[in-house]
C-alpha cells in the first residue's frame, strides 16, 4: 500500500478479491484489472482505512495528516505510530514497554476519534496508583480541552462521576464491580485497560465483570509492557477479551496447547508456546525503550499509594504530637529532620520508637504497587528503601511472590556486597536488589537494572542523584525509569524538592512547618 498525494492509497490485490473489496468500501477507483491482479485507489479517509485493516490487517492511518497533536509537548515518533495503530483497530493490544509514553498515545488516539465523531466517552481502567499521577495528569497535558474525572471514593461519588458528562472517566480495577450497572448504562464506547495483566485470569470476578461490560460494539484497547511474562497460560484471559477466536473456548484446551505436564503437579511451557502466545495476543503493537531513539535516556514516574486506615491513624497521631512539641519552641533543622523522618517511617511501613523497638504497619497497597512496577518491566530493578526494618518487610513480601531478591544494607560486609553485585550484574538472579541508599549510593555500577524504585524519599539531594547514578552510567544499554512511590503529603513534598534539586538541609524547618500547618 502506498499513499498517493495525501489523498488515496494505491493497492494491488488479486482480481478474485476485487468484488469483495468493492462490496465493503465505497470510495474505490479501479485503475486496471488484467484478470490476475487489480490495481485500485482507495480514498485515504479514516473509515476506509479502518475497513482495510479489518480486511487486510494493516493500512496507513490518516491521523498524522488530519490531527494537530495538542498538548504541552511534541509526541515522539513511536507515540505517533502507536496512536495511529490504536485508531485503526476497535480491539487491540499495546505492549509498549514501560516508560515509552503509551498513556499519552492512547489519549491522543481517543481525542482524534472524538474529533471525528466516532466515540464520545472513554472509560480508563487502571491501577489505583496511576489514576491521578499518570492518567489524569497526562490528559491535562495532552488533551486539556477534554473533560476528565476520577471515579474513586465511596459508591455514591463513583456513580456521580460515571453518570456525569465527563469525556474521560478513570477508575481502578476493583472499583469497576461496585458500579457495574452504572458503567453499562453510561455510554462508554471505548474502554482502555492499563496494566492489562490484571485481567489474565478468567475465573476472577474482575475478569467476569469486564467481560460483561464489553459488548460487541465496545472498542477495547488493552495495554501492558509485559504480556504473559510469568506463563503462557496468562495469555488466555487477555485473548478472550480482544481476540477470542485466537484461543480455544475453554482454559483447559489452551493449557494443553501451550503446556506440557512434566509431573502430577508440574506443568512446563511447550517449545511452541511462544508462537502460540504471539498468535493469540493479536492484533498488537510493541515498542521497547531501545527501539525509541528519540526517547529521553531517563524517564520519571510517580505512583500514588493509598495509606491504610492504620497508617493514616498513626500518621495523624504523630503529627498532633509534633504540633504540641513545636508549640512555642524554636525548631532546629536537626529536630525537623528527625520528626519528618518519623513521618516517612510510618508512611513506609515501620517506625522505630525512642526505645529502639520497631512498630510495623500495614502497607499492603505500597507492596502491591511495587509488584505492579516489577510486572511492567522484563529487566532487573533496584529498590531503594531508607530504613532497615522496612527493607526486610519488602524482601519478605517479594520472597512470598517468588521474586528472587537480595539485600544490601549497612549490616552486609563489603566482601558479601561485592558478591551480590557481581551476581546481579552477571547472572539471571537476583532480579531485584533492595538497597539502603547510604550503603550503595556511591561508586557502585548496577547497569543490569533499567529501573530504580524509591520505596520512600531519601533526605538528601546528593544521595537521591547518586542512587539514580547506579544505573545511569557507562555500560547501560537501555533507557531508564525512575519510579517514586508516595502516599503521604510529606513524601510528595520531599520528592518535589528532590527533583527540583532543592537542598533539603536548608529547607527542612520550612518543610516541617508546612507539614504541621504552622
Shape: globular
Tally of contiguous helical segments: 20
**Beta-strand content bin:** 15-25%
Which fold name fills CATH's third level, the topology of the largest domain? Rossmann fold
User: Which range best describes the helical content: under 10%, 10-25%, 25-40%, 40-55%, 55-70% or over 70%?
Assistant: 40-55%
- At CATH's second level, what is the architecture of the largest domain? 3-Layer(aba) Sandwich
The CATH class assignment of the largest domain is Alpha Beta
Mean pLDDT, to the nearest integer, reads: 91
CATH homologous superfamily of the largest domain, by name? Tandem AAA-ATPase domain
Number of strands: 21
Oligomer: single chain
Question: What radius of gyration results from the CA coordinates?
Answer: 26 Å
CA-to-CA gap between the ends? 67 Å
| Spatial sequence of strands, sheet with the most strands | 7-8-6-9-10-5-13
Describe the model:
With 518 residues, this protein is α/β, with parallel strands linked by helices. The chain folds into three domains: 2-50; 63-295, Tandem AAA-ATPase domain (Rossmann fold); 299-305 and 359-516, P-loop containing nucleotide triphosphate hydrolases (Rossmann fold), CATH 3.40.50. Helices cover 41% and strands 19% of the residues. The protein has a seven-stranded parallel beta sheet with strand order 7-8-6-9-10-5-13, sandwiched between helices. The longest helix is centred in the middle third of the chain and has 18 residues, at 309-326.
Amino acid at each position: 500500500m502506498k499513499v498517493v498525494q495525501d489523498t488515496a492509497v494505491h493497492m494491488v490485490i488479486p482480481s478474485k478479491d476485487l468484488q469483495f473489496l468493492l462490496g465493503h468500501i465505497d470510495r474505490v477507483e479501479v485503475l486496471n484489472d488484467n484478470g490476475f491482479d487489480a490495481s485500485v485507489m482507495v480514498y485515504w479517509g479514516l473509515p476506509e482505512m479502518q475497513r482495510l485493516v479489518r480486511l487486510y490487517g494493516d493500512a496507513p492511518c490518516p491521523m498524522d495528516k488530519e490531527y494537530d497533536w495538542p498538548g504541552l509537548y511534541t509526541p515522539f515518533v513511536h507515540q505517533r505510530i502507536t496512536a495511529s495503530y490504536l485508531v485503526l483497530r476497535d480491539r487491540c493490544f499495546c505492549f509498549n514497554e514501560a516508560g515509552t509514553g503509551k498513556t499519552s498515545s492512547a489519549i491522543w488516539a481517543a481525542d482524534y476519534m472524538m474529533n471525528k465523531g466516532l466515540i464520545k466517552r472513554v472509560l480508563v481502567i487502571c491501577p489505583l496508583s496511576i489514576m491521578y499521577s499518570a492518567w489524569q495528569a497526562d490528559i491535562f497535558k495532552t488533551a486539556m480541552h477534554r473533560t476528565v474525572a476520577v471515579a474513586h471514593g465511596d459508591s455514591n461519588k463513583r456513580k456521580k462521576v460515571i453518570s456525569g458528562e465527563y469525556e474521560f472517566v478513570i477508575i481502578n480495577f476493583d472499583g469497576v464491580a461496585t458500579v457495574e450497572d452504572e458503567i453499562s448504562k453510561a455510554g462508554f464506547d471505548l474502554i482502555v485497560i492499563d496494566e492489562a495483566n490484571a485481567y489474565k485470569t478468567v475465573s476472577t470476578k474482575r475478569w467476569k465483570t469486564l467481560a460483561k461490560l464489553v459488548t460487541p460494539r465496545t472498542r477495547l484497547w488493552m495495554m501492558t509492557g509485559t504480556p504473559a511474562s510469568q506463563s503462557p497460560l496468562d495469555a488466555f484471559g487477555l485473548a478472550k477479551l480482544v481476540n477470542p477466536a485466537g484461543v480455544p473456548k475453554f482454559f483447559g484446551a489452551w493449557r494443553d496447547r501451550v503446556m506440557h505436564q512434566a509431573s502430577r503437579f508440574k506443568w512446563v511451557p511447550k517449545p511452541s508456546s511462544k508462537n502460540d502466545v504471539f498468535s493469540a495476543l493479536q492484533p498488537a503493537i510493541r515498542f521497547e525503550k531501545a527501539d525509541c531513539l528519540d526517547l529521553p535516556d531517563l524517564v520519571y514516574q510517580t505512583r500514588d499509594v493509598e495509606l491504610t486506615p492504620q497508617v493514616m491513624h498513626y500518621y495523624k497521631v504523630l503529627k498532633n504530637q509534633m504540633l504540641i512539641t513545636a508549640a512555642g519552641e524554636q525548631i532546629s533543622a536537626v529536630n525537623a529532620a528527625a520528626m519528618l523522618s518519623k513521618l516517612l517511617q510510618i508512611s513506609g511501613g515501620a517506625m522505630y520508637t525512642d526505645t529502639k523497638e520497631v512498630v510495623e504497619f500495614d502497607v499492603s497497597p505500597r507492596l502491591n504497587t511495587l509488584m505492579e512496577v516489577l510486572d511492567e518491566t522484563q529487566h532487573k530493578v533496584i529498590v531503594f528503601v531508607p530504613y532497615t526494618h522496612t527493607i526486610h518487610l519488602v524482601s519478605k513480601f517479594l520472597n512470598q511472590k517468588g521474586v528472587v531478591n537480595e539485600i544490601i544494607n549497612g549490616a552486609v560486609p563489603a566482601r558479601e556486597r561485592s558478591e551480590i553485585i557481581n551476581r546481579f550484574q552477571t547472572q539471571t538472579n537476583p532480579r531485584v536488589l533492595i538497597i539502603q541508599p547510604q550503603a550503595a549510593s556511591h561508586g557502585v555500577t548496577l547497569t543490569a537494572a533499567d529501573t530504580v524504585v524509591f520505596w520512600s524519599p531519601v533526605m538528601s539531594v546528593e544521595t537521591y542523584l547518586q542512587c539514580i547514578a547506579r544505573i545511569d552510567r557507562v555500560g547501560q544499554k537501555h533507557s531508564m525509569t525512575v519510579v517514586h512511590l508516595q502516599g503521604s503529603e510529606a513524601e510528595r513534598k520531599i520528592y518535589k524538592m528532590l527533583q527540583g534539586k532543592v537542598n533539603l538541609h536548608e529547607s527542612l524547618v520550612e518543610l516541617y512547618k508546612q507539614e504541621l500547618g504552622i
